[in-house]
Specification:
- The protein is an alpha+beta fold.
- The protein has two domains: 258 residues, Jelly Rolls (Sandwich); 74 residues, no CATH class.
- The protein contains ten helices and 15 strands.
- The strands form two sheets. Strands 2-3-13-10-15-8-7-4-6 form a nine-stranded mixed beta sheet. A six-stranded mixed beta sheet has the order 1-12-11-14-9-5, with helices on one face.
- α2 packs antiparallel against α3 and α3 packs antiparallel against α4.
Length: 337
Amino acid sequence: MFDQLQRAREIPGTDLEALPDDVVNDGRPVVVRGAVVDWPLVRAALQSDEAAVAYLERFYNGTPINTVVAPPSERGRLFYDGESKTLNYREAPQLLPNVLKGLLQQKNSDEPLGIAIQAISAADCLPGLEEVNPNPLVPGGASARVWIGNRVTVAPHFDVADNLACVMAGRRRFILFPPEQTANLYPGPMDATPANVPISMVPLDEPDLERFPLYRQALDAALVAELEPGDAIYIPYMWWHGVQSLGPFNVLMNYWWSRDDVSARHPYGALLHLAYVLYGDMPFVERQAWRALYDHYVFQTGGDPMEAFPPAQRYYPRKLDPERVEKLKDALRELLR
């Protein structure tokens, strides 16, 4: 199926000192081939998974790291459990060497657990890693986040920031959708999410087009990119992206940043609970991205956004009592101060 999708634009990453202006201003994803191929971590990973593990352990300071584990029956898909809002994995703090050892042990298993460490702060848990693997393609102050795991699939979601994701070890496939495809992706419940934003309820590998017919339109607009160690991908503000880790051992480092103050202080944790937020100073392309979400959830231009889901997975906001209304006003005053 992915072979039929349009490929994301690619540019060479060697000798770049920043992301080119035409990449950032175009507002579409771009693969930067070989952007970080000279990093010591990438060179270690190209030697072997064991060499990459040894390299990471050099920087680890002993801080427990939140780790996701899904049963083999889920085949690496991090999602909801059946037709409930309960997530199909468990989370617990672990020591990094134990997780890395477990990943190496799972490599040859016929029924591996789905294991993922997601978005840990390099500065907090792996101090010094950023300094010896510097990234000139991101603005100053954009800190690195590290993602480690085996063959897992993360459902399409969006970030309220620009994103540069760099593959250190293994291979990753990105399936990307522009913000205006929001309704066609069938975003799920807002009150129980893996990472505080809704995710697409359509399975990436085997989409049920009878249940989710509008997804055909999303696929027509989709882009796909496959990254090797040393490659990076720029994902613009609020572009939906699903990610598949394709190898038994994978490491990725990413960076989020905002291009303007309005975007940076937007309360995305409550993005669809707040109906009145000032967007006037936000760049036009970013306002258009938010419009797609509000059209889908608030104005329901395509009908009931929960209709395709079983009752237990639907979300309908509670009516606000006067006390809650005052709290909402206070939140808006703080936002607009």
